[in-house]
Specification:
Helix content is about 65%, strand content about 0%. It is built from 17 helices and 2 strands. It has a two-stranded antiparallel sheet with strand order 1-2. Helix 15 runs parallel beside helix 17.
Length: about 290
């Protein structure tokens, strides 16, 4: 049995639970058509193309849904049900004929943008996911934000399989394109000095051009901040925008450097934003341990 079988069964159960009767019937029939097909590749492509129309484009009602692999937990509650159904069909096809060319590559090459994004979101669930790194890297180079976001956000794959340089490029491109790096999985674990320095340089460029700085960039700066980075952090801890204060304080707390927050009690007395107050209080507890 394929090692992906339990994941397929769990994902299929979630899709069926989130679908109406017509959608559930269609998925069960589609799986039967795959099982009986003499041309699995073409059957898979045809069924995948219809999945969003048959199952819907709505997100799962439970955003906390997750599958726990040996390497990491993959949260899929933010996927739409139709794309999850596509992944179920792909996994079924791979189980039927495990030898030969990877069907993930076939679907990636033949599918539209949404089908490619669905595959990239699910790479960790496939057999030997490291062999599919080329697909992940290609998605990371895409101009499509939907396809890039599928690998960059809420996806543990880059943190598990990318080199430091490849991981840094994912983080920097997320910043450049306005995506939240708070959603880049494994950021704290994969943080490195080069990433911190590149993030500091990006802040300098934005400030020099009188442009706004991404509010969550401090998550990439703080772990290996230079003296200049520390100065930036301390300046933005007093920024007029609450989101900057929140992420600067959170970043310092996450990387075990609450001392750079200075007098936390004084900050709490002057802080009006509830989210910032919460992260400051937590940092104060941490520094008191």
């Amino acid at each position: 049995m394929s090692s992906t079988a339990p994941f397929q069964d769990q994902l299929a159960a979630a899709v069926l639970a989130a679908s109406d009767a017509h959608g559930a019937d269609w998925l069960n029939q589609a799986l039967g058509r795959l099982a009986a097909s003499d041309d699995v590749d073409n059957e898979l492509l045809n069924l995948s193309a219809a999945a969003r129309r048959k199952l819907g484009n709505q997100p799962f009602p439970d955003p906390s849904l997750a599958l726990r692999t040996e390497q990491a937990t993959l949260h899929f509650g933010h996927w739409n049900v139709g794309d999850a159904g596509r992944v179920v069909l792909l996994m079924q096809a791979c189980r039927q004929q495990p030898d030969g060319d990877r069907r993930e590559r076939l679907m990636f090459r033949s599918g539209d943008e949404t089908e490619r994004a669905a595959i990239v979101q699910a790479l960790l669930l496939m057999d030997d996911p490291g062999e599919l790194k080329a697909l992940a890297l290609e998605a990371g180079r895409a101009n499509s934000l939907a396809l890039f976001g599928a690998i960059a956000l809420d996806n543990p794959y880059p943190a598990l399989y990318y080199s430091d340089h490849e991981f840094n490029q994912i983080v920097l491109k997320s910043l450049f394109t306005g995506l939240s790096i708070a959603r880049v999985q494994g950021l704290q674990e994969r943080a490195n000095a080069e990433l911190s320095k590149m993030s500091e340089d990006y802040i300098d460029e934005r400030e020099a051009a009188a442009r706004s700085v991404p509010v969550d960039i401090w998550l990439a700066v703080a772990p290996f901040a230079t003296d200049h980075g520390n100065a930036l952090l301390q300046r933005y801890l007093d920024h007029s925008q609450a989101e900057h204060r929140f992420y600067a304080a959170k970043a310092l707390s996450l990387c075990g450097r609450p001392g750079l927050l200075g007098d936390i009690d004084a900050r709490l007395r002057h802080e009006s934003d509830p989210a910032v107050r919460e992260v400051l209080a937590a940092a104060g507890d941490q520094s008191g341990d």
